[in-house]
UniProtKB/TrEMBL annotation:
It is a multi-pass membrane protein. Keywords: Endoplasmic reticulum, Membrane, Protein transport, Transmembrane, Transmembrane helix, Transport. The chain crosses the membrane at residues 63-85, 92-111, 155-173, 179-199, 206-227, 239-260. It holds the Pfam family SURF4. GO terms for cellular component: endoplasmic reticulum membrane; endoplasmic reticulum-Golgi intermediate compartment. The keyword Signal does not apply. It is found in: Endoplasmic reticulum membrane. The keyword NAD does not apply. InterPro entries: Surf1/Surf4, Surf4. This is Surfeit locus protein 4. GO terms for biological process: Golgi organization; protein transport. It comes from Poecilia formosa. The lineage of its organism: Eukaryota, Metazoa, Chordata, Craniata, Vertebrata.
Length: 269
């Protein structure tokens, strides 16, 4: 009974947090979610020659195609971020960023690197949640029209987004024998399973946001490494990818788990 009371207390705190931040949370979630695309688009501008030369050397595709690749990444990512933040043509922006993820997965040979592939899929999960949010916004425009219940595409987008976000956490697992690593893996795995199946979803997602934020700031502190060192870019890449997944989890907190979840099924019991 004591454990149940503690869980109920934690859910009350989470609900109170949501009530206070209701107006700002979706905006913060979107900003976090697009941060990795924003950073990468800006990097394409400042590292134009290096990126073009890398693609040209790797794929032997010639100067013109390599330049087109960098330009497409720059315009596609920055343009998509502007549209999402301004709430214009969000669905088209999401599809465009899906295309950028697929293009980079092939161009940078991420397909054969399991860790980076899982992180890119997790990014895709965040975009799916953003698509679901844009559908619910469009639906709210017709609030007076009778509804047959939540639309299937939206609720399956939310399910797919939640499941794909799991992949980000899996890349953070540390297979060490020390107590802290074992505890981190056990608690983190339990939380991410709760998010995936949609049970106590908002509380679990909010806890994961705090956890991932702490891990991100501690392990990916790229600002402590001089800019000329390769580790600076690696940590920066990890930092913004993790921030994007935090944005996806914040969308789960703001939107709820959707129709395909244990939380929703509990209401029918």
């Amino acid at each position: 009974m004591g454990q149940e009371d503690l869980m109920n207390k934690a859910e009350d705190v989470a609900d109170q947090f949501l009530r206070v931040t209701k107006q700002y949370l979706p905006h913060l979630a979107r900003l976090c979610l697009i941060s990795t695309f924003l950073e990468d688009g800006i990097r394409m501008w400042f590292q134009w020659n290096e990126q073009r030369d890398y693609i040209e050397a790797t794929w032997n595709c010639g100067y013109f195609l390599a330049t087109c690749f960098v330009l497409l990444n720059l315009v596609g990512q920055l343009g998509g971020c502007v549209l999402i933040l301004s709430r214009n043509f969000v669905q088209y922006a999401c599809f465009g960023l899906f295309g950028i993820i697929a293009l980079q997965t092939v161009a940078y040979s991420i397909l054969w690197d399991l860790k980076f592939l899982m992180r890119n899929l997790a990014l895709g999960g965040g975009l799916l949640l953003l698509l679901a949010e844009s559908r619910s916004e469009g639906k709210s425009m017709f609030a007076g029209v009778p509804s047959m219940g939540e639309s299937s595409p939206k609720q399956y987008m939310q399910l797919g987004g939640r499941v794909l976000l799991v992949l980000m956490f899996m890349t953070l697992l540390h297979f060490d024998s020390n107590f802290f690593s074992i505890l981190q893996n056990m608690v983190g795995t339990a939380l991410i399973i709760l998010v995936a199946i949609g049970f106590k979803t908002k509380l679990a997602a909010l806890t994961l946001v705090v956890w991932l934020f702490a891990i991100n700031v501690y392990f990916n502190a790229f600002w402590t490494i001089p800019a000329y060192k390769p580790m600076h870019d690696f940590l920066k890449y990890d930092f913004f990818q993790t921030t994007s997944v935090i944005g996806g989890l914040l969308l789960v907190v703001a939107l709820g788990p959707g129709g395909v979840s244990m939380d929703e099924k509990k209401k029918e019991w």
